[in-house]
Specification:
Number of helices: 11
Radius of gyration: 26 Å
Strand order of the largest sheet: 1-2-3
Order of helices and strands: HHHEEHHHHEHHEEHH
Shape: elongated
Strand content: 5-15%
Distance between the termini: 39 Å
Structural class: mainly alpha
Largest sheet: 3 strands, antiparallel
Number of strands: 5
Amino acid sequence: MSGIMSTTGEEGRPSVRVSIPVADIAAGHYASTAILAYLSRRLVTGRGGYIDVSLFDSIVSWLSYLATYYFATGKEPKRMGSAHPSIVPYQAFNCKDKELIIAVGNDSQWQALCRTLELERLLKQKRFNTNPDRVRNRTQLIPILSRRLRAKTASYWSRTLNKNGVPSAPVYKIAETVRDPQINHRGLFKSRGSDIPELISPIRLVRDHGGFSHPAPRLGQDTREVLQELGYSQASIKKLADDKAI
C-alpha cells in the first residue's frame, strides 16, 4: 500500500515484492532514531516524551523521489526493472557470466564508459551526448551497450570500469556476498556457539566496539532468570515448569 511495489518489476509485467521486510526495518530504524532524540532532549531539559511510529508511515516515507515525481508531473512512475528513470545508463547488464550494475552519474563518466568499452563512436553521436539525450534515446542505447558487455565477464568489466572512474559492481549472489573480502574484513558474519553464522550490527563504535558477546537467545532461555527478577520464588518457578507453563 506504500506505492513502492507498483514501481517494482519490469514494464508490462506484474509487480515484484521486495525480498526483505523493508517496512519492518524502516519502522525499527525510525523508532530507534526517535528514542535517541528523546534521550538527548532529556539530557538537556530533563523531559522525555512519547513517540508514535507506524510501519505504514515509515514505508510511505521511503517513496522519496517517486513521490516528488508524482506530485511534479501527476504521472505514475513506471516499472523499469533495474533501470533508473532519469539517469542512463544506470542499470544491470548481462555479461559473459553474470550481471553487472553500471551507474553512470554524469557526462564525464559516460565518456569514460565509452572509452573503456571501446565504443568511442558513441561519443560522436549527438543523440547520446548528454544525460537528457540518453534518457530520451534509452531504447536505442541500451542494446548497443548490452552487446558489448556480453563479450567479457562481469569481474573483468567491473575491475576495468572502476579503474577508469566508472562506478560498477557485479550483482552478487548471497554465497558471494558472505565470501567477499571486505565483508570478512569487517566481520559482519560471526559464528558463536552455533554452526550457523549470524549477522551482527553494522554499527561500529570505534573506541569500544567489541561486537556482541552472545547469540540471540533460544526460546525460553532466560525465562527463569526473568521470573526471579520479578520476585518469583524457586518453588513457584518449579511449579510453572512442572505444569509446562514455561
